[in-house]
Design goal:
alpha+beta, single chain, 9 helices
Length: 231
Amino acid sequence: MVSEEKCGTDVLPLQVHTMDGEEARRICLLRMRAEHNLKSGKGDEEEESDEDEEGEGSFDRERAEKRAKKLVPDSGATYIYGVTYVPAPIRSDLGAFLPVDMSDGCHMDGPTKGTMLTTATLDSDHHLNTVATSIFLDNESERVWDKHNEFVQEAYGKDDYDTTARRCIIDGDKGATASFKKNLALGKWFSCGYHRKSATTSNAGKVAGAQYVKLLKSHKPGQVWFRMKCT
């Protein structure tokens, strides 16, 4: 079970995410499976399975469970899972900033590892400002993006944040994509140019990827639209 505890002040809202020991062990197993899949070239998928894998280099679930119990010794205790906060200057005057924000996640290194999620926007001078930051002892996934996005809308007010003018730029992570689809009712989201180019190259080849980059650099929107319709 994952629970939430709001603390801080009205100006600087802070949400601490906690979970019981059983859920913490399950998350540990998912993280270890994802790390194993990355090292073995299977991507970062973290599908749960009760079946033991066979063959050289397969995921050793029994060993992972022992490690999870060592990391989380008390299944009945409550553990901190993550924290999300928003800065006071942005929250007090969201309307002064452009209704375009960028969200991305990065993997942290260290004894606990984990993921940091950040949403940022631009002011009228095109200076970057943080909208919200989350740190989770977990992989980048739909569940952590859900907690991040839900708190952003709660802190800023859903009616003020999720508007028809809102545009959210995200990376190509599957979890982020699923979460933004779910949490944005009026606003729109799209992947950044780097990941769209990568996806185009992967699906249609290097020539298509190079053509897409050429379209992105065009300064004539009508010309871009015409070329895209013709290709």
